[in-house]
Write a structure and sequence with these properties.
This protein has 288 residues and is α/β, with parallel strands linked by helices. It contains nine helices and ten strands. It has a single domain, classed as 3-Layer(aba) Sandwich (UDP-N-acetylmuramoyl-L-alanine:D-glutamate ligase). The radius of gyration is 18 Å and the shape is globular. The structure holds adenosine-5'-diphosphate, pyridoxal-5'-phosphate and magnesium ion. Homodimer.
């Protein structure tokens, strides 16, 4: 029997609704991953509501929890670490030391970093020191990096002029260390208005994917977290990068269709669960 992969997911938890681990854990479990959720913050709700209650996990808890898993002899079973929304730069550094510890226990373990940097206009609030940490420290350690366009712009220090320029910017990121960069949401001058586009770049390949742009009165949150979680999960289940990329785009689209049909602001993950596991439409990536 094939072994079920294990994934340590280090990102936010919200009591109500879906963002961070609260967006990614259930879908990852639903498609066959043993998820170890480690919550960097516990907030009442995601920050785009404008106010929230709760607190940030003390950074020293991250190595302590990982040490606890090592002490029961399970750390070597960890196949990958996913990091997302961070409450402080100190948490980020604690994650990098946890990643080093895990890679000693299992040299094949992957580290995937979703560099959540915040988007003040949208109300996604992330401390500036976290962005600096992601730019200066995390990118060099990550095996895969999954920025959105704003995050790619921050890494590059500029905005793109075209689709090919986005490719060049993502490709330049590879030089910092990651083996692959997934841009979860592209924006560039001349982009067709009716599409939602993504990019996957490795040393030798570039894949571009387009899916329909759906209309929402308020843009749902947690879409990026869901995308990076499903992408990594499919890789752990044996997909190649292109297939994992196509699967993530297709399953996320199913969630958004259900969310739109329900008129919800929060992602309808429970209602969409069967279609997350078996998306009805497969969006194909095109080689650039
Ligand atoms: N097919 C789609 N149609 C409309 N909006 C979408 C679609 N897919 C994703 N979105 C929205 O696009 C945005 C992607 O956000 P962005 O900041 O680029 O990435 P992230 O979710 O990682 O922060 C989100 O607001 C999400 O709700
Ligand atoms: C607590 C929390 N976690 C994670 C996110 C990131 O969500 P997304 O997947 O939309 O980037 C947000 C965005 O506002 C948030 O408030
Ligand atoms: Mg994001």
């Amino acid at each position: 029997m094939k072994r079920t992969p294990h994934l340590l997911a280090i990102q936010s938890h919200v009591v109500f609704g879906h963002a961070g681990n609260s967006a990614a854990v259930f879908p990852m479990q639903r498609i066959g991953i043993n998820v170890w959720p480690l919550n960097t913050v516990q907030f009442s709700n995601h920050t785009q509501y404008g106010h929230w209650a709760g607190e940030v996990l003390a950074p020293q808890q991250i190595p302590a929890l990982v040490e606890g898993i090592a002490a029961i002899g399970e750390l070597g079973n960890c196949d990958a670490v996913l990091s997302g929304y961070l409450g402080s730069a100190a948490q980020g550094r604690a994650i990098l030391s946890a990643v080093a510890h895990i890679k000693r226990a299992n040299p094949r373990a992957l580290y995937v970093c979703d560099p959540v940097m915040g988007h003040p206009e949208k109300g996604c609030i992330v401390p500036q020191e976290v962005s600096d940490f992601l730019l200066d420290e995390a990118a060099a350690v990550a095996d895969f990096l999954c920025p959105n366009q704003l995050e790619l712009d921050s890494f590059s220090g500029r905005k793109p002029e075209s689709l090919l320029d986005c490719v060049a910017m993502a490709r330049a990121l590879l030089a910092r260390g990651p083996k692959a960069v997934v841009v979860k949401h592209l924006a560039y001058p001349g982009k067709p208005a009716d599409g939602f586009e993504m990019l996957l770049v490795t040393e030798h390949e570039t894949w571009h994917l387009r899916r329909p742009l759906l209309a929402f009165p308020r843009q749902p949150v947690g879409v990026g977290d869901l995308t990076s979680g499903l992408f990594l999960s499919r890789i752990l289940l044996g997909d190649d990068l292109r297939s994992a990329f196509e699967f993530a785009a297709s399953a996320v689209h199913e969630v958004l269709l259900e969310t739109q049909a329900c008129g919800s602001y929060e992602l309808e993950l429970v209602r969409a669960q069967d279609r997350i596991a078996h998306p009805r439409v497969r969006f194909e990536a095109v080689r650039l």
